[in-house]
Design goal:
Helices cover about 25% and strands about 20% of the residues. The two termini are about 20 Å apart. The protein folds into 2 domains: about 240 residues, 4-Layer Sandwich (Purple Acid Phosphatase, chain A, domain 2), CATH 3.60.21; about 55 residues, no CATH class. It is an alpha/beta fold. It is globular, with a radius of gyration of 19 Å.
Length: about 300
């Protein structure tokens, strides 16, 4: 069946450790398993500036996908990279600001020019579907939202972006822009004026991510991320009516993106996140070993970390 692996962010060493731990073997055609296949959840790049492992990581991933030993979906960092390297009307779709340059530095360190090698990587990013539905599961980087999925299907039936749809999806105010924001970056709620918090990179944020998979909540404070975030009196507000709803009878859905901590476990009986902050000192690179079950099982998570034994 499938081993679903979360955000790697340039950490090739941890990916090799995890693949070995899961029983994959290296060959002239890359890593393979005799009876299983990997599904990567995107966010292969950025972070890990000091590692210089992007080329190693992308070689592993691209070879596995090429030889059908893995599938992969696009993460927001692959989307951002395409926008950063795409010009339209004399401007890059993602401005080359100090912040964006810093965010993309780990990738730029190893792909500094417009080489064929960089072009191959960007072509690979274009080849990534925005989500997968197969064999009774759903896989998407951040949020399964039926309305926004319908928007993208209408824009690009292949559910793969090309330059034209990339321009549309990076233009504020379009339906495609709103869809990509939710599908690849998660549903967010703008906090009351004057309220903000610092994220894991110490950037001030005025919008909080929402736990769209959480059922039975009635107030905003119950569903904001990070868990325990103090949003003051706004925590007593009713839930926004446009939060995506993922029913308990829908297929298992796997996501990355959310930089969770602690011991991996399902978010709901049919929703699991496999992003456990591999970039951080105590983070983990996580996989879920899916074997057809419709109710997800916390014992099916496997992971490796910088300072912890494989599990």
């Amino acid at each position: 069946m499938y081993d679903i692996i979360g955000d790697i962010h340039g950490h090739a060493d941890e990916l090799v450790k995890l693949l070995n731990h899961l029983g994959y073997k290296d060959s002239s055609d890359g890593y393979f398993h005799e009876s299983r296949k990997v599904i990567f959840l995107g966010d292969f790049i950025d972070r890990g500036v000091e590692l210089a492992q992007h080329k190693q990581l992308l070689k592993i991933v691209m070879e596995m996908v090429k030889h059908e030993n893995a599938l992969a979906v696009m993460g927001n960092h692959e989307f951002n990279a395409l926008c950063y390297h795409t010009e339209h009307n004399g401007k890059f779709l993602r401005p080359h600001s100090d912040y964006n340059n810093s965010e993309h530095k780990a990738f730029l360190n190893e792909y500094p020019d417009n080489s064929d090698e960089k072009g191959d990587v960007l072509d690979f990013f274009y080849s990534l579907p925005l989500w997968l539905e197969l064999d009774g599961i759903r896989v998407i980087h951040a949020c399964w939202a039926d309305h926004h999925i319908s928007v993208i299907k209408a824009l690009c039936p292949s559910i793969k972006l090309d330059k034209e749809s990339l321009i549309d999806a990076s233009t504020r105010g379009t339906k495609a822009y709103q869809a990509i924001e939710v599908l690849l970056k998660g549903f967010e709620y703008e906090l009351p004026q004057g309220r903000s918090f610092l994220d894991s990179r110490q950037k001030s944020r005025t919008a909080a991510r929402i736990q769209w998979w959480k059922r039975g909540a009635s107030e905003l404070g119950e569903v904001v991320l990070p868990v325990g975030l103090d949003i003051g009196a706004a925590g007593k507000r009713a839930l926004p009516k446009d939060i995506p709803v993922y029913g308990s009878d829908e297929p298992p859905c796997f996501v990355g993106h959310y930089w969770l901590k602690g011991k991996p476990e399902p978010l709901a009986k049919n929703v699991a996140c496999v992003d456990y902050s591999v970039v951080e000192k105590d983070g983990k690179l996580v996989a879920y070993r899916w074997d057809g079950e419709q109710v997800l099982d916390k014992t099916k998570f496997s992971y490796v970390g910088k300072s912890s034994k494989a599990a």
